[in-house]
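Researcher: Structure for this, please.
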Amino acid sequence: MTQVDFHFNAPEKLPYVCRLLRKACGQGKKVGVLADQDTSDLLNQALWNLNASDFVSHCALTDPAHLLEHSSVIFSSNWALLSQLPQLDFFLNMNDLAPENLDGVSRLIEVVGPEERDKSSARQRWKQYSQLGFQINRFDLAVPTPN
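Model: Predicted structure, token format:
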């Protein structure tokens, strides 16, 4: 069964996504990021601007095979091709729409900012995932976590 984790109220979405990817990379995970070209470019630049000790290896799905093999994060706007990569541990959807076919996907993460447009599209994706019977987890980043 597909598990979908919604991270709501990310105050600064791109920096939060960078921290999420850095954490996954630190745990030895490989992540497929579904995003349009502009978002991929912004995220690519943000990852290069991390401290050298926080480096997250990343590339585009269209890069050479040796880069794909050695990268922890792979960006693509093509879900059909990205979702077929066997070595990925989970996916991050940066688009306003849910991916078309989630067969074989065990985990998908959605990061939602505080903007109403982002929240509105997230509600639609939540509804779609719910109708498909997926396990949905909600993480509200505006609520402080207990120490």
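Researcher: Any notable elements?
Model: Strands lie at 3-8, 31-34, 58-60, 73-76, 90-93, 107-111, 135-140. The chain has one domain: 10-140.
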